[in-house]
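Two folds, back to back.
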Amino acid sequence: MSALLRTPACNMFGCEHPVVLAGMGGVARSELVAAVTQAGGFGFLGMVRESPSLIRREVDAVRRRTSKPFGINLIPAATDVGLLDQQILTCIELGVPVVALFWDLSRDIVRRLRDAGILVVCQVGSAKEGELAQRAGAQILIAQGVEAGGHVRGMTPLRLLLPEIVSSSDVPVLAAGGIVDGRDLAAALRSGAQGVVIGTAFLASPESFAHDYHKQRILQAKAEETVLTDIFHINWPIGAPVRVLQNSATRGERGNPFASDQIIGEEEGRAIFLFSTDSPLRSMTGDFEGMALYAGQGIDRIDAVIPAGERLAAIVAEAARLLQEPNANVTMSI
């Protein structure tokens, strides 16, 4: 089964299966990354805007749980320049094997990471952005469809975007956006991808650092209850759309998103502001209903919180079965 699904990207990552945990900020911490990695996938720690000390603790925690490779997700556009420099230096000092970048891509950052022997992955939302990322030195691309939860770079459905980026790329391409199950993985591989990146489905696991409120909302919601909006802007560049579940904030019941300084939560002494990009985490208290409840459009097919390793095994088994059936319908589910 592993041989059937193994792609060159698996060899580059050092994993058994072409299933990658998205580096969800706050949510993808050591417990979830280790669970996905130990199950044969590849996991990214979501370390956007996090301190070097937290990065060190999380990296150490992953390494205590597994000896397999993993990566770190950084987002330069949402990070203070000084902090970003410290984050990159920390990744280099710790010998992190892979770093993923998103939003604004800097050739200098890519070169700095690659010179340190780090594999550089870049998530893109268009074929043009994919070409620019390759020119900057990205070694693997993630084609993110508009169906994705969280911050969304482009406006093109994955079924259209993926073949376009694959056909114009000289590096491996992974598919992201609304991917939940083995049918999606099989369809992505048939479309030329060398793997998939999954966020929301792994958020709904006991190992994820998301608060139980967020997980339960995902189980209860339907795809049509997600919305693209730019109101959750604090900590990110203005005008950056996110896909979230509808709530009082998206319905306009919480006032002007660009003229508010209301505090609605707390995390270890840090204030959580209404209309910030913070999503509910285990470590938080507050008004979770009004926070950014990130969710991709594949939520219709997420009906239980199950261990990440169990979910990954089911995805891989279903994809292998479908790919062995010549007449199987493996079009993407959304």
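---
second:
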Amino acid sequence: MSIYEQLAVKKRINAAANGTSIGGSIMLPEVVAAMQEAGRSHVSIPELLEKAGSRIAELAGVEACAITNGAAAGVAVSVAACMTGSSNARIHQLPGTDGMKDEVIVQRMQINFYELMIRLTGARIVPVGLANRTYPWHLEPAFTPQTAAVVHFPAYSPPTDLPIDQVIELAHDRGVPVIVDAAAEFPPFSILSHYWKLGADLTIFSGGKGLRGPQSSGLILGRKDLVEACAMNGSPNHGVGRPMKVGKEEIAGLLTAVELWSDPKFERKMYDRWEQRSGSMIETLSQVPGVRARKGDSPPASTGLAVHPDGLPFTLVEWDSRRVAKTAGQVMAELWEGDPSIIVAETPSGILLNPATLEPGEAEIVAQRVAAVLTA
């Protein structure tokens, strides 16, 4: 029996996204092999972190890299680094902030659950902007001598937000670093250097989502001095990031994932695979009366970058409510509760099927189950 069978935990087919609560992504076989190999030896973790980080920075085309145990940890450690720099006294003082900069600016519309990662350091969040728009004159007066950083969350940034290039310009004019939490914006591989080229000081990515590395891994990419301060605030050093431990296995697995994706042929192969799966699902579902299935191109949020000029080939499924008397929520519930259990995402007009989270053979299963639910 598998571990899931022993525990009576139901395995599910993921046709939605690489969310943490549904297990992130399925690691690439090469990643699993690297982790197994890494687990057979003792090494100096600081040395491994330094050398693996240097290699990832070289591959990504940025100045430096720190490896964390996830993107959320990356936010906390990055904010801490901007508050303490390389001062051991300040590092050991957190979350007490007396005598140091402790204000972090976030646009009001971007406030989300991950604000807690900022507050864990002892920092205070300074929200700027209106409930539906941010202008430069909202951000400008928010800078004070106590401002430690600006944090930008692209996934939560609507079109009416102040764009990241303007945020960087205004912050840098005042000597304030900018942190970008781009956790789920991978692929393409070029996104790893995108915000760095725009001028962001630190950019954070999840290792266990689009990269398909270990779920408990993440990257902080950017300015060498701040990346070094991130390392000082993180495990195995004794800063606020000490509980956010990343093991030798995750370090090796994440480096392997980045190595794989750095090859344009690998990225092209992955995209072609997603395209084929999406096309297969569209073909099956288009035969269902009253159902419309089409490719919905969706590049990563806010960047305009994509693995392919057409974007990521999501499958959008919509239906005529006069012929299929079910809401998207009802369809999702039936798929979740069925056998096999399938996870899909909701859209304003139907459901979305993500080919990038599917394993070989699952696209056909998903299409057949969705078709059965819509015709039941």
